[in-house]
Amino acid sequence: MKNYYRSAILLAGCAIFTLTPYQSARAQDMQAIMQELQALKVRQDKLEQENSALKQQVARLQDGSAEIQKPASIEHSSTANNDVGKKVENLALRLEDIEKKSAAFEQASIEPAAGRNFSDNIEVGYNEGGGGFFIREGDNQLRVLGYVQNNLTVFDSALNRSDENGDFFIRRARLDFLANLGEDVELLVEIDGGAGTATPGASDFALVEARSNIKLLDDDLQLRAGKFTTQFSTENARSSRSIDTIERYMALNSLFLLPAVDVQFGAMLHGYLGENNNWWYSAGVYNGNGRANDNLSDDNGDKEIQAKLTYFSDDKDFSASIALDHSTEERQNLQLADLGFNSYVSVPIEGERRGIGGDVYIKEGPWSFRSEAMAFEFDGVNEDDVRLYGGYIQPSYFLYGDHSKGLELLWRGDVAHLDADTGNNGDTIYASTAGLNWFINPNTRLQVNGILTHFDGPSAIRGFDDERTVPMLQTELQLKF
């Protein structure tokens, strides 16, 4: 029995010994801290069990001491009484010590709901609504965010796609690490474990973004560098976790296939102007050949240049932008593609690319309206110029709630036109999308897009001998943290 109590005391002593260096290591390794707390919780449970056993032992010994003290006239009972009394006293001291250590362990394992203070300056917690987990000390902060998009697409067999109908797949599975170093430096690394561009036997793991942002003159002048999303298209600049429809609009998809105006390697100056930051500007230089799931060195001998200017109302319920783009393309094919990235027609291009784009956003209560359009001119191979036009309009309405918890209905009208010599093929795609966005909770969203696509003529790529109207159903369940 003595060994049993000695083990309890030794266990408590080891816990205290462990807790001391644990305090000094908290700021160095937060993950180790969480593991240590779990271990402390286990030790606390053991101490509570021993605590209960000791209380029972003390009670029994106290009862025995009282019985021995009754025949005080008997001389030999005095010795027994003294021995038992000492045992009771020792056990009481041990019990008090164990209770103190147990209370210390319990205090160490308490986690407040809003975040946990590991010291006077370090806090750990979670930002509701997909804002991610954070570790913060003053102006320094590390956030970890992520989301997974589970998709199902049902399409008309007339599209002659290589994949099977009713295809379940992961559209994106992304993890973001966002670090703020003081007030002026930010670092973002985004990785994707669901990249769909990998060849058989290759890794599906992709580096989507890796960028730094430095405030040179507060918010007025900032430098962004690395691999990041270019700002020409506002629809593309919005995170894929936040866009209103499952896929972006068709003309933009057609540029992605080049690739163009997607995630690029480069540098950009940007900032806010005006008393209430009503104006935002950007000017960037990029390699011009990058895309979200590829990491390519510059292979086109030229640079892509972009500039953009955006106006915001004070309440941010209205915004409007205009953007310019210029680059030089190696010889390749420009493809017109629908909302399922099904190529319809293509023409060869080589040389300069010049583009202009614009967008508008209006919000009034549960109503909102978005629209974006672009026009690009390319040097052709078999003709002087090739032009791509396209855009969309989208009214939407929340039946109840908002983006945290609610139900939104929308309609999107989308067109993409290729002004070029396409031979006997068509040159325009029209799409009508009826959309439902069910925000089940701040972390979960179900999207359903019913799409009716009209191809205005034959397509050698798709095997159409005439114009064709094709239905498609896209669904997506997104979970984010």
In terms of topology, how is this protein built?
Blueprint: H1 2-25, H2 30-69, H3 75-108, E1 116-117, E2 122-127, E3 132-137, E4 140-155, E5 167-181, E6 185-192, E7 206-217, E8 221-229, H4 234-237, H5 250-256, E9 263-273, E10 279-286, E11 304-312, E12 318-337, E13 343-364, E14 367-380, E15 385-401, E16 406-419, E17 428-441, E18 444-455, E19 468-480
Antiparallel strand pairs: 1-2, 2-3, 3-4, 4-5, 4-19, 5-6, 6-7, 7-8, 8-9, 9-10, 10-11, 11-12, 12-13, 13-14, 14-15, 15-16, 16-17, 17-18, 18-19
Please provide a brief summary of the model:
By secondary structure, the protein is an alpha+beta fold. It has helices at 2-25, 30-69, 75-108, 234-237, 250-256; strands at 116-117, 122-127, 132-137, 140-155, 167-181, 185-192, 206-217, 221-229, 263-273, 279-286, 304-312, 318-337, 343-364, 367-380, 385-401, 406-419, 428-441, 444-455, 468-480.
Q: For the record, what CATH class of the largest domain applies?
A: Mainly Beta
What is the arithmetic mean of pLDDT? 84
State the total count of DSSP E strands.
19
- Major sheet attributes: 16 strands, antiparallel, barrel
